[in-house]
Amino acid sequence: MILLLSFITWLYLAFFHGRFWDSAPELSPTMPPDAPDVDIIIPARDEVETIAPVITTLVEQNYPGNCRVILVDDNSSDGTAAAAGRHERLTILTGQEKPPGWSGKLWALSQGVAVSTAPVILFADADITHDPRHLSTLVAKMTTDRLEMVSEMVRLNCTSLPEKFLIPAFIYFFQMLYPFNRVNNPRSRVAAGAGGTMLIRREALERIGGLEAIKDALIDDVTLASKVKKTGPIYLGHSGLATSIRPYPTTRDIWDMITRTAFTQLRYSTLILVGTIIGLALVWLVFPFTTLCTGFGWRAALGLAIWAIAAMTYFPTLDRYKLHRAYAIALPAIAFFYMAATIGSAVNYWLGRGAKWKARAYTGEPS
H or E stretch including 176? Predict the structure, then answer.
């Protein structure tokens, strides 16, 4: 009975869950019909290893309108601001001490917004480099489709063996949680954004009460997208014009990335955690266990069929990262790793370790 339920679940996921596996859409390089002023706000805390190439790609954007980069140096101890260099398009702010109730990243962003004057704002991360056509392409999508926000899942670093096994799956599981087709459907309640690239109209940000309305959100991109979508259409896609240069060379690095906010995604609820683990076990553990442990027969055959369906839904993500499709065979084991990391995130919270961002620990209830 449980195996049949797993099979039915996978039929739903494969055929009726918003084509989450499609690894689409992706914007083609385009010049905007209109070019409003844009301020690009970068929060940076101890980013000396990545900040120079990031700033270089941003100040060299081939954008027909006016744009400037506002770097908020969030109390870095490694010379991040100096490493950013000097450019007429670059403004560097020294971050102020975080007041109670704010998450670290959002407080840094809010300081950039406070000095920004442009009608359009791009929130971007300090570890992402951009093709010279990227800003123009984002603005073209926003203005042509009259969107309130345009966000993209940038290409993540995927060179080490742990990255090849685990990073594409991070994108795949995110798509499973938030099917991009549903995010982009104004009639759907599903909303999400990718914090590395979020282009937003100032009016839309002000309409929801500014960043102060989500000041304690640790998963700020999804929270912001959820609020903005209530006021107008948004877009989420994959980017072929922006790439994260932050490496995750070891399995522990990826573990820490997941545990930082996984329990926050579950709203710090033990009940939701238990339900999530049960659901993930149904989706990811039943069919490999049945296939490997029941010998020959219809149960093993059905388990193998489910395994094949799951693997095929992973193919487009592997293709995007130019990895061999054989990695899909390991998807149940990869899912088990993510399940364990989610439990680890809960344990960290229960032990009072909270979430961390660039050596800053803080706890708080979800917004």
Answer: helix 161-177
Q: Distances in Å between the alpha carbon of 326 and those of 10, 106, 172, 298, 333?
A: 20, 40, 16, 24, 13
Q: Look at residue 310 and give its three-state secondary structure.
A: helix
pLDDT tens per residue across span 102-156? 988 999 999 999 999 999 999 999 999 999 999 999 999 999 999 999 999 999 9
Q: What are phi and psi of 148, to 5 degrees?
A: -85, -30
Distance, CA of 144 to chain centre: 24
Q: Which domains does the chain have, with CATH numbers?
A: 2-19+252-362 (no CATH), 22-249 (3.90.550.10)
Q: Which residues of 202-231 are buried (b: 16+ CB within 10 A; e: fewer)?
A: bebbebbeebeebbbbbbbbbbbbbbbbee
- Can you tell me the distance from the alpha carbon of 142 to that of 19, in angstroms, rounded to the nearest whole number? 23
CA distance 332 to 307: 8
Q: Distances in Å between the alpha carbon of 77 and those of 45, 80, 99, 100?
A: 8, 8, 19, 22
Q: Which residues of 141-151 are buried (b: 16+ CB within 10 A; e: fewer)?
A: bbbeeebbbbb
Do the bridges between strand 355-357 and strand 360-362 make them parallel or antiparallel, or are there none, so unpaired? antiparallel
- Based on its alpha-carbon atoms, the radius of gyration of the chain, rounded to whole angstroms, reads 21
Q: What tens digit of pLDDT does each residue of 303-346 get?
A: 999 999 999 999 999 999 999 999 999 999 999 999 999 999 99
Angle at 122 between CA 119 and CA 123, to 5 degrees: 130
Q: Please state, in angstroms and rounded to a whole number, the distance separating the CA atoms of residues 170 and 176.
A: 10
CB contact set of 24 (below 8 Å; sequence gap of 6+): 180, 237, 238, 316
Tokens of 75: 């109390």
